[in-house]
């Protein structure tokens, strides 16, 4: 099968489409003929050597496609079913992928729309669960990206009032998702207090823009703040840094369909690229300023 791999660290030019042996589903897993795979910032961070040291590396943790092989004990889906989910092997940007956690694709979504979901909804749900978000007011710093907008909608679905920071160009988008938008940057605390005079109950930092002290002050202490983007700041200020190795919220894969089909959740696909153009997709991802998800589209031979 064809798959994305790199054998040295560097710029997008180190990415290759290579032939690798077909993977096979183990117990409790399914193999899919991949139709679409998500692009995430971790992809280019890995490529630049900022995360893992081993070489070569394959890429991709989220994908959507058609089941073509069942592992032992799998009885909840059948060959031919449309599913989306996570590849624990990190080899989803390929023609075939083994999914360890999966769910049926919501009927109204195409493969690209489904491939955009797993990482964003799992990260957002995990952070909301760690914050214990069930009521009150939540402040999300960086609310217009894929994880931020997922967190907005999932929190609103829990009955929470959400205040979200974003550039002025994204304020209308946040309103459409159910959040009250505020501009980021100098004066943030005053702008939030104008909306929530007593501060907020919880705060989620998605952007990692150095505002943890302000979030701590608004939320009444570091125990009410979670960041997914500022590891150094979390250590410095005693804030929880949310990471997947501490237990992932994979339960959301099976729950998101109801929200999607009821019109209470959407995650736009910002741009689609053929598998062969993965280098360009990573350039766009690394440049930032993307509203929604970047997705690789795979013309699987299966």
**Helix coverage percent of residues?**
25-40%
Mean pLDDT: 95
For the biggest sheet, the summary is: 7 strands, mixed
**N- and C-termini, Cα separation:** 10 Å
Tell me the Rg in angstroms: 19 Å
Summarize the helix and strand pattern as letters.
EEEHEEEEEHHEHEHEHEHEHEHEHE
Description:
29% of the residues lie in helices and 26% in strands. The protein has 302 residues and is an alpha/beta fold. Strands 3, 5, 6, 7, 8, 15 and 16 form a 7-stranded mixed beta sheet that branches. It has a 6-stranded parallel beta sheet with strand order 11-10-9-12-13-14, with helices on both faces. α3 packs across α4. The longest helix has 14 residues, at 118-131.
Task: Describe this structure in a few short sentences.
The strands form three sheets. Strands 3, 5, 6, 7, 8, 15 and 16 form a seven-stranded mixed sheet that branches. Strands 11-10-9-12-13-14 form a six-stranded parallel sheet, with helices on both faces. The mean pLDDT is about 95. It starts with a strand and ends in a 5-residue tail after the last strand.
Question: What's the helix and strand layout?
Answer:
Elements: E1 2-6, E2 15-19, E3 30-39, H1 41-47, E4 57-58, E5 62-70, E6 82-86, E7 96-99, E8 101-104, H2 111-115, H3 118-131, E9 137-141, H4 146-157, E10 161-166, H5 171-177, E11 180-183, H6 188-195, E12 202-205, H7 212-219, E13 225-227, H8 231-237, E14 240-241, H9 252-261, E15 269-274, H10 278-287, E16 293-297
Parallel strand pairs: 9-10, 9-12, 10-11, 12-13, 13-14, 15-16
Antiparallel strand pairs: 1-2, 1-4, 3-5, 3-7, 3-16, 5-6, 6-8
């Amino acid at each position: 099968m064809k798959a994305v791999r790199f054998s040295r660290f560097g710029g997008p030019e180190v990415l290759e489409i290579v032939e690798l042996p077909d993977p096979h589903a183990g117990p409790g897993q399914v193999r899919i003929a991949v139709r679409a795979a998500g692009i995430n910032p971790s992809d280019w961070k890995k490529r630049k050597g900022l995360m893992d040291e081993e070489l070569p590396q394959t890429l991709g943790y989220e994908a959507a496609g058609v089941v073509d092989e069942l592992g032992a004990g799998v009885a909840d889906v059948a060959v031919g079913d449309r599913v989306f989910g996570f590849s624990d092997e990190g080899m989803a940007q390929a023609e075939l992928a083994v999914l360890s956690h999966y769910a049926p694709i919501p009927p109204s979504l195409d493969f690209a729309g489904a491939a955009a979901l797993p990482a964003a909804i799992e990260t957002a749900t995990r952070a909301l669960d760690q914050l214990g978000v069930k009521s009150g007011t939540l402040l999300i710093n960086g609310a217009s990206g894929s994880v931020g907008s997922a967190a907005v909608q999932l929190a609103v679905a829990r009955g929470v009032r959400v205040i979200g920071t974003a550039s002025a160009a994204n304020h209308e988008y946040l309103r459409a998702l159910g959040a009250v938008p505020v501009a980021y940057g100098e004066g943030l605390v005053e702008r939030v207090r104008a909306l929530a005079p007593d501060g907020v109950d919880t705060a989620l930092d998605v952007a990692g823009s150095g505002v943890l002290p302000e979030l701590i002050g608004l939320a009444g202490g570091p125990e009410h703040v979670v960041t997914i983007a500022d590891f150094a700041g979390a250590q410095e200020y005693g804030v929880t840094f949310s990471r997947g190795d501490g237990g992932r919220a994979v339960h959301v894969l099976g729950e998101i369909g109801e929200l999607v089909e009821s019109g209470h959740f959407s995650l736009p696909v910002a741009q689609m690229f053929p598998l062969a153009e993965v280098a360009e997709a990573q350039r766009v991802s690394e440049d930032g300023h993307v509203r929604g998800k970047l997705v690789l589209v795979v013309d699987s031979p299966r």
